[in-house]
Amino acid sequence: MQAAKQAQDDERELVTFRVGEQDFCLDISFVREIRGWTPATVLPHAPDFVLGVINLRGAIVPIVDLANRLGLGATQPDDRHVIVIAVVGQQTVGFLVDSVADIIGVAPTAIQPTPEVASQSTVRFIQGVIALEDRMLRLIDISTILPPVAEEAA
Fold first, then answer.
1. Which of 19, 52, 103, 140 could form an SS bridge with 40, CB 3.0 to 4.6 Å?
2. What pLDDT sits at residue 134?
3. How far apart are CA 102 and CA 46, in angstroms?
4. Spatial CA neighbour of 24 closest among 116, 133, 99, 94
5. Residue spans per domain, the chain
6. Cα end-to-end span (Å), the chain
7. Which helix (H) or strand (E) holds 64?
8. What are the distances in angstroms from CA 145 to CA 3, 9, 77?
9. Within the chain, which residues score under 70 in pLDDT?
10. What is the pLDDT of residues 48-76, one digit of tens each?
């Protein structure tokens, strides 16, 4: 009984969502809230994956088109889309996704490394792959989604 309790305690809780007809997930500890689509105010000269900013209870939050950032094509947001508000380091950011599916618990041993055949950009954004009965989830490395400030200035 103690071993089963320990295994359950070791599970990572992940929020699963769809982006560009693909299944992804993110550690729930990064997620602050999930909200409906809100049009963003465009920022001049922002990277193409940054849709703009929204006012979230007095805080200005950039909105990243996750499909565009992951190379799956730009999203044309509408009322069906969702923004996942997450904290990346010291910054709050919103990720535009198609839909949020559920929250799952996964043992660390279920997370397989990203295959070697993947491109460097895939390996950069994806921490691992989780095979479930009916789908494959890619675990996003949230720390790599936003470029470092020095990289943006270059």
1. 52
2. 83
3. 31
4. 99
5. 2-144
6. 55
7. strand 59-65
8. 36, 28, 19
9. 1-9, 117-122, 147-154
10. 999 999 999 999 999 999 999 998 999 99
Contacts of residue 25, defined as CB under 8 A and 6 or more positions apart, other chains included, come to 14, 15, 16, 17, 104, 130, 137, 138, 139, 140
Strands 50-56 and 91-97: unpaired
The full DSSP string for 86-140 is EEETTEEEEEEESEEEEEEEE-GGGEEPPPTTS-HHHHHHEEEEEE-SS-EEEEE
Burial class (CB in 10 A: 0-12, 13-18, 19+), 101: middle
Whether the Cβ atoms of residue 75 and residue 81 lie closer than 8 Å to each other: yes
Q: How far apart are CA 46 and CA 42, in angstroms?
A: 8
2-144, superfamily in CATH? CheA-289, Domain 4 (2.40.50.180)
Closest CA to 114 of 103, 104, 129: 129
Q: Which of 87, 112, 86 is nearest to 100 (CA)?
A: 86
Find the helix or strand (DSSP H, E) in which 12 lies: strand 12-19
CB neighbourhood size of 57 (10 A) = 5
Beta strands at 22-27 and 126-131: parallel, antiparallel or unpaired: unpaired
